[in-house]
């Protein structure tokens, strides 16, 4: 099937996005230095460990890797992939930037949507992508997320969403701002229909995405060490002149202040999300 | 009409411009202010309560910037904390319960940016308002009277009608912020303002607002009289609306849709 080709690792870096068979160490393989423990490991070893360091540090993943890692094998069917950003304001340089990003990266927008199974349970899923213009939300992202919630509501499916975003895409101006209201409306209708929405906040989730669908889940989980917030930390530091707490806007901070249900490392996400889906399934055992 | 976008931004920010309380005092009668979000505090950047619009009890919510330096500091320069948005939502839910229309006056450079605001969930507060306003079962009209800064403004504007004063602005980011991110040069704010298309006229052309309110007589009582009459007429129409929530959903649903499909 076409979508299976799409899911195949695009390049060496993407291989091993899921927990895979042991990888043979070949001489001269590139190594990756962990910003947390400062040790370096072969790229393949990190990738086969859910793209996390043995010390627990979570490296970022692109949407394709994330889907490969979280969804049951071959279960992902992409939806709405024909939707692309327009340039509604004719903003200087935006069209060119979109073309460059699309060409170099291959992804068409900062979110991938579809249906999938996670540990055997059927769901709708969206995965944002920080490698596409920092996961910023413009009209295409807003439209795809909205369509997904409408699709899920019509078929009575839960939605699982992985957020990562620098915020609204300023090159689309007011159009991008309005996507916050539009997506929130779709989430509300899905919610009012009695359906489950789980968000997993990944590094970084900020700005207009935090202030809309990222914070609207019935269950909100966060990856360890992710930055999650509304205003940018540097902006806060500059405007207040205060030094920020050590864990400021990290998952641990979000949990402590009551804005996430739990912090879940990648190695436990699949099982937990699968279980949560089962516990909310409409045909659950009486 | 030869005014640049950035000139309008400066007018929208002017301390001399009427603020939220000026609109409340000049348009409504018997205003009772209700304080507090019932969770943490009362945010002085947002004023809310009930009042009469002509003979109709309504809920009024306004972001207040203040005029004097002292007032402006007291009002956090019109930058609401999460408590402000939660107070606004509490008053909106109260309006829904008692079948009162809601009128919001929006004037903010953005939601407050600070450690406490993050600790108390600024993102969550705004997100919740966006969600809940979409299904608030009573007419809601928002008027942008000065600055409409990003999510902090939108959190009071998921409404059936959004109107802007002719020199009000509405944007996803401040022109200075946009210029410093894109061109590493905040002094290019005028270029950013033009390109962000943030004037009332732009917003109307995009179908994001319904009407532009003239400022020709902004210093005269007739200015408020006209707004009062306009609000009254529109609310009476909205109260007869059978598909209020369906139309509100569609109002936002349609934005951007034709641009990205096909
Ligand atoms: Zn490490």
Task: Report on the architecture of this protein.
The complex is a heterodimer of chains A (286) and B (262). By secondary structure, chain A is α/β, with parallel strands linked by helices. Chain A has a single domain (2-22, 61-279), classed as 2-enoyl-CoA Hydratase, Chain A, domain 1 (Alpha-Beta Complex). In chain A, 35% of the residues lie in helices and 16% in strands. Chain A is built from ten helices and nine strands. Chain A has helices spanning 2-7, 43-47, 63-70, 94-105, 139-154, 173-192, 207-210, 233-240, 251-256, 266-279; strands at 31-33, 40-42, 77-79, 111-118, 121-128, 159-165, 197-205, 219-222, 262-263. In chain A, a hairpin with a 2-residue loop joins strand 4 (111-118) and strand 5 (121-128). Chain A is globular, with a radius of gyration of 19 Å. Residues 1-24 of chain A have low confidence and may be disordered. The mean pLDDT of chain B is 96. With 262 residues, chain B is an alpha/beta fold. In chain B, helix 1 (5-13) packs across helix 9 (189-196). Chain B has one domain (5-248): 2-enoyl-CoA Hydratase, Chain A, domain 1 (Alpha-Beta Complex). In chain B, strands 1, 2, 3, 4, 5, 6, 7 and 8 form an eight-stranded mixed β-sheet that branches. In chain B, strand 5, helix 7 and strand 6 form a beta-alpha-beta unit. The N and C termini of chain B lie far apart (36 Å). Chain B is built from 13 helices and eight strands. At the A-B interface, helix 5, helix 6, helix 7 and helix 8 of A face helix 5, helix 6, helix 7, helix 8 and helix 12 of B. The complex binds zinc ion. Zinc ion binds at residues 34, 36-37, 39, 53, 55, 57 of chain A.
